[in-house]
User: Fold this.
Amino acid sequence: MSDSSPALATHNRDLQHHFTTMEQQKDASVMGMWVFLVTEIMFFGGMFAGYMIYRYQYYDAWVEGSQHMDFWWGTINTAVLLCSSLTMALGVRASQLGRRRLTAMFLLITILFGLGFLGIKGIEYHGHWVDQQFPGTNFHFLGPNPRQVELFFSFYWAMTGFHALHVLIGICLVAYIAYHSWRGAYGPDYHNPVENVGLYWHFVDIVWIYLYPLLYLISHKHVSG
Amino acid sequence: MTTSAVPIRERENYLNKEYGIKSWLLTTDHKRIALLYLMSITFFFFIGGFFALLIRLELLTPAGDLVQADTYNKLFTMHGQVMVFFFLIPAVPAVLGNFLIPIMIGAKDLAFPRINLLSWYIFILGSALMLYTILTGGVDTGWTFYTPLSTEFLTTKVVAAAMAIFIVGFSSILTGLNFIVTIHRMRAPGLTWSRLPLFVWANYATSIIFVLGTPVLAISLALVGLERVFHLGIFNPKLGGDPLLFQHLFWFYSHPAVYVMILPGMGVVSEIVACFSRKRLFGYKFMALAVIAIAVLGFLVWAHHMFVAGISLYAALVFSLFSYMVAVPSAIKVFNWTATLYKGSISYTTPMLYAFGFIGLFTMGGMTGLFVAALGIDVHVTDTYFIIAHFHYIMVGGMVMAYLGGMHFWWPKISGRMYPEGWGKLAALIIFIGFNLTFFPQFILGYMGMPRRYWQYSPEFQVLNVLSTAGASILAVGYLLPMLYFLWSMRYGKLADDNPWGAAGLEWMTSSPPTTSNFDEIPTVTWEAYNYDQLKEVPVERQ
Assistant:
């Protein structure tokens, strides 16, 4: 770097060569994450749009399909994911304060919540498979509007499937920053990666906050079992 | 101009700083990544061109003799997919945009250099999958992947092709993300939004489309994949789904993507026209707002691809109206380029010839766009060669012209060498003639009723088809020439000055080729864009 910029007040080892100040670097990094989240919204948006159209067209089938969701597991999973967002937020805060061990601990708890979420989702998936509720290959439904109910399950599997994939990616990212946090890579001056992964994790959480009522709570007359 | 004391070849620049394959494959320098993209998309341009040539050869005679229907279906499918996703979409943004945007805004690099390199590797991954698709039998869905044809009836490599395009989409997303953040956060002191070159504005508008549109393409293709692999039924009427939903999702991206294939070209042409008219671009603010307006309106017109697909008449009327509205900012651009020429000191250099070609052919493509935005005429010409001719006037006549114009204009900056001007003009002329001979007859063919996507046709269409095929072979020569003399000039071309055109813009204030960090000192901008009235120097590089 043959860079002879006029006497920078602080020369931070974390400042990449093409940025002028740490502040510029942080702004760019956070903005980049927000723009990325916009693309994620559009990605899920396609499925949400399709869901809305068919829910409007086949409302009865949507209510019917929703009856076959496991209300309690879904609700518990919502709570699990909300808790994980809390620990994530605590982890980001600890990282801002420069407490690296505490950060790593909070991130580890976040990972455990994430794994718990996936485990519960797996139990639900297993149940749907056993009950022959996988459209196309393994679907059997006795009742009114079988085709439309099958469509509901197409959306259920596609939407929750892509969401679960995002949770999985999120767990890997959190693990990565937890490791680097433990090693002392972040401090009060530089913790952009922690904040960005935090944003991503909250986004994945928010997607679930929408999926939960759309799939599990269409009709409040829930029959258990 | 006198040669500087130190011979230019020995000055350190981004090309000679490091050598070896590793210094290229692991580089985070936006200029080197641009060249990596340049090589990749040129490769795909010739693959796509090869398919086009086979298509035109088959259509030389009315009978289906060179290839059979199944092969023909694969040819036009892969021609479309390769040209759209692997050449046109990355052409200007990933090559010229990558190279120029940081320099034009006075930055040392894009905001995320490693993500920039990652985007190229993602592109290569998608490319490998596309090549695998091509080499193992190809795909025949049409470039649009329409369901239920793609999900239910075909046995070709649909999933592989969809995956390839899904993956390549993420390279666009990352490029767009990088551009947006860079343009927001990395501008040099004093370089306000109203001082940005229009090339930057155009790439900003393009990036908005990348970021908002491409994920929707990704999810549509992912759902097609899920339908084929797991037999989910979101687009399948047998399972309660609806193929129209796929068309809506696909065109929600793919119509804006059409503007990805024109907006950056408009940016290039704005730079060239201002430079070779020696004038500030007429109506700068309107030009900047027009590219944003096209990007925004582009998201509201997608269903004009579906007028005959069975959407409601009211929806069709609304989409027709919005499609007409796109003509307003487009016309603003054409009129303002023309007004810039008025009373300018025009020099007819190679880039300027391409810019003229762009303006004329884009106008043709745009005007015929108005024909097909009208519901009645669209019903008549849907799925005919009229449509083919219309979008090739925009995508080839517009975008490829602009891309080549930009390559010539910035070649001295990229390579540090001048291309041979005489050959350049000749190639531009050949391309213009070849292009019109190829595609103008197709307007007439389409209006007479020749349908697209058939490998044989009625004998009365033959004369015009022969003309079109003849034009395509001329066009092929025109496209080969620049590649040959660009390669030649890298070794034998005249050494370029820092500013051979006497052009305004920060990219002309650094050395040719630039150093790895672009500027020795970050410039402070105190002038407006295109301040040609303040530049005393007159271009001398005319031959």
Notes: The longest strand of chain A covers residues 133-134. The domain at 44-216 of chain A is CATH 1.20.120.80 (Four Helix Bundle (Hemerythrin (Met), subunit A)). Chain A touches chain B through 46 residues (CB under 8 Å). The radius of gyration of chain A is 22 Å.
